[in-house]
Amino acid sequence: MQQGLQRGAALMQRRKIEENLNASWEDLRAFLLCTRHQSFRNAAEVLGLTGTTLMRKIDRLEEELGFKLFLRDQSGLSLSDEGRALLFDVEQMERLSFNIFRRASMSTEINGSVRVAVTEGPGISWVLPRLIDFQKTYRNIMVDLRCAMEQADVSRLEADISIQLARPTNPDLIVTRLGRLHIYAFASEAYRDAFGLPKSLSELRNHRIVKQHGVQLDETGYARILGLESLEGIVGISTNSSVAVLYAIERGAGIGFLPTSVMALGAPLVPIDLGINYHMDLWLTYHKEFRNSDRHKIVIDWLKKIFDPKAYPCFRDEFIHPNDLVPLMAEQRRNFGLQGYAAAGLARRSDLD
């Protein structure tokens, strides 16, 4: 009987330790998010908690550890010396936990899901049409395509594969440069007929601009590239969506900047020669663990193929004028053009009404 009581007490003690470990890891994750967002309110939104509940978690963690993690003032949260020392260990814990789940998701069989994150414009206008054909060949691979301007962090399992505008520096990731997006000024024919087109950057001040903003875009880039101190008074529409920019330009809302490929794919736009040739590189990134997953390797190879600059001139390093790009991409326009998209269709129907 005494042995039974001892075993029961040991079991209860082990369960209590496990419960404390689970609670502590939740608190440590809350600490990580507070560190990344430098704000209780923003971190609480990500966790789906109230700010008060999150602060109680941090208070409990600080009490258990015996020291303060944050210095709190009106400017936000900053790490204490002890918090900074703890951060490295907690990030290592998170990284190792992600590795466990990443390995669990891998398989030598060619079936299952692959999560691909792509910046919105190329994702919708370039990857998605080709994904339909890919799916016809690989029926057992489900590609979960995420198109957004926010960059997905593949090291934190936000996606398996990411195509992004900023090159990651995490040594655990494999990074390949796919190609280059060349950005050019465009307007609609209706806008040109109504207001004319600027012949120089100085004349652009007399026109309306459709501007895109986003976390992967340089907010000061427009004014700097255009040689202006401010865009105040000339921006008619500002949006975080590249698809919305294309739609607004098509509908004659103003002049905007888009990849040269949109005109080659059939968008009814007029290029504006302002002497500007801006470009952004596309980076393919995935965790090195996925080298051992057959279905991930298939998707990675396919993405490299559909962004190959040798096959698709719009991704070459050298700039090709949109007018010259049109005949070079006639086959792509025929098979994967923008003519089937709702925005273009709505614009054409509106012009006919």
Summary keywords:
D-Maltodextrin-Binding Protein, domain 2, alpha/beta, 11 strands, single chain, Arc Repressor Mutant, subunit A, nine-stranded mixed beta sheet, two-stranded antiparallel sheet, 3 domains, 14 helices, 20% strand, 353 residues, disordered C terminus
Name given to the CATH architecture of the largest domain: 3-Layer(aba) Sandwich
Tell me the Rg in angstroms. Answer: 26 Å
Number of strands: 11
Counted up, domains total 3
Order of helices and strands: HHHEEHEHEEEHHEHEHEHEEHHHH
What is the mean pLDDT? 82
Number of helices: 14
Structural account:
The protein has 353 residues and is α/β, with parallel strands linked by helices. It folds into three domains: 2-105, Arc Repressor Mutant, subunit A (Orthogonal Bundle), CATH 1.10.10.10; 112-179 and 282-311, 3-Layer(aba) Sandwich (D-Maltodextrin-Binding Protein, domain 2); 181-280 and 317-348, D-Maltodextrin-Binding Protein, domain 2 (3-Layer(aba) Sandwich). It is built from 14 helices and eleven strands. It has helices at 2-37, 40-47, 51-65, 81-105, 120-137, 189-195, 201-204, 221-226, 242-250, 261-264, 294-306, 322-328, 330-336, 342-352; strands spanning 70-73, 76-79, 112-118, 141-147, 161-164, 173-188, 209-212, 235-239, 255-259, 269-272, 278-287. The strands form two sheets. Strands 3, 4, 5, 6, 7, 8, 9, 10 and 11 form a nine-stranded mixed beta sheet that branches. Strands 1-2 form a two-stranded antiparallel sheet. β3, α5 and β4 form a beta-alpha-beta unit. α1 packs across α2. The radius of gyration is 26 Å and the shape is globular. Keywords: DNA-binding, Transcription, Transcription regulation. Belongs to the LysR transcriptional regulatory family. NodD regulates the expression of the nodABCFE genes which encode other nodulation proteins. NodD is also a negative regulator of its own expression. Binds flavonoids as inducers.
